[in-house]
Amino acid sequence: MTPSPAQALDTLVVGAGPAGIGCALALDAVDGLTVGVVDRGQIGETFRRWPQEQRFLTPSFTGNGYGSTDLNSVHPETSPAFSLGVDYPDGRGYAKYLRGVARVFEVPVAPECEVTSLRQDDGGFVATTPHGPIPARTVVWAGGEFQDPAVPQMAGKGALVHTSRHEAWGPRQGRLVVLGGYESGLDVACHHVEAGAEVTVLDADHPWDAGEGSDPSFRLAPRTRMRLARAQQTGRLRLLARHASSVARDGDRWSVSLSDGTVLEADSAPLAGTGFGPGLGPAAHLFDRREDGWPLVDADDQSTRAPGLFLAGAALRHGSQRFCFVYKFRQRFAHVARVVGESFGKDCTALEAWRQAGMLAEDVESCGAECAC
Ligand SMILES: Cc1cc2nc3c(=O)[nH]c(=O)nc-3n(C[C@H](O)[C@H](O)[C@H](O)COP(=O)(O)OP(=O)(O)OC[C@H]3O[C@@H](n4cnc5c(N)ncnc54)[C@H](O)[C@@H]3O)c2cc1C
Q1: How many angstroms does the Cα of residue 363 sit away from the middle of ligand 1?
Q2: Ligand 1 test: best mutation among 14, 118, 146, most atoms within 8 Å of CB?
Q3: What does the UniProt keyword field contain (predicted)?
Q4: 372's torsion region: left (phi>0), alpha (psi -120 to 50) or beta?
Q5: Domain 9-147+276-367 is in which class?
Q6: Which CATH architecture has domain 157-272?
Q7: Tens of pLDDT along 82-100?
Q8: Cβ of residue 88 lying under 6 Å from some atom of ligand 1
Q9: Less packed terminus of the chain by CB within 10 Å, N or C?
């Protein structure tokens, strides 16, 4: 894509991660739409930045021909398992998959093109970038959540190291405290137990217990449960259903105080596996918020404050439904593309391929996962 097109694009996609590349591919399938993608870094920039120890939790497998499209793919005819030859991709591998998809399908991506502001203008939008303004009639915000690490509000929080930082994965000896007992907290805890550390995980909600329902957004992934069982067998992992209220450092010792007055000592900086915020960056002012703070969108994933601005990716919420995995948020790529295409009077027939591949859920209320056994 030419970074600063003379004519307004029909759709500008901000972000070249799985949500942005996936949406652009569906939009591109709509006959006659002009689409461009920008990224502040390279294609798959977030995955390029993942600590090398982190891998996908969702397995890849090339079941595409039988209607079981690889859980981590962003287009019906692709599979990370096929292109990478692994079942749980790491960050660099997945970035390579995204680059390959963008190359094969000729997705128009402008790298090193950060959107620093986004405003409504004359019925559309104008994105400000270092290469000049980009006018667009509609925008898909696919900036991802990795840029918005969530750290708990408590005294001494500056001493915490978030799991998105490479420093959290470096060698640790002795006693270590991890705040947060869901996927990222247990991921880093198991990693350090495997390397010999004695780890205490704190989470008042104790998500390591079975939890309710079958939805992986609320229940640990099988891979994590298997690692957890192995880590517990070492005797070096302690899971405490308690709330941390403050952190303090004294030289090369750290202490974490719990709300009941107990104090845990640690030999290195405590880690925060406490997740991410929505990461809306310069688009934040164009979204209303739900009561829980997540962006408010209408039934078509459009901002209620700025219609024509769509949200794609893990920050998407509809009612109690969370779309925090690729196999979930990809269900909306073709829906958004159809809403955009039809608003411009375009033929959207090609998007049926997404439905046939099990990659299109128009009724998000039907997305719940409950298993009988
Ligand atoms: C540690 C971790 C593990 C995860 N594991 C899994 C898993 O196993 N399975 C799964 O399905 N999901 C997993 N997820 C959730 C989710 O799939 C990923 O977070 C995924 O990266 C989200 O895709 P995205 O395209 O929305 O965001 P990203 O991949 O973060 O892409 C966003 C892109 O937008 C760019 N960008 C941001 N702001 C701007 C701007 N202002 N201008 C231009 N470009 C911008 C960034 O450079 C980036 O390339 C995991 C998430 C994390 C953090």
Answers
A1: 24
A2: 146
A3: Oxidoreductase
A4: alpha
A5: alpha beta
A6: 3-Layer(bba) Sandwich (3.50)
A7: 999 999 999 999 999 999 9
A8: no
A9: C
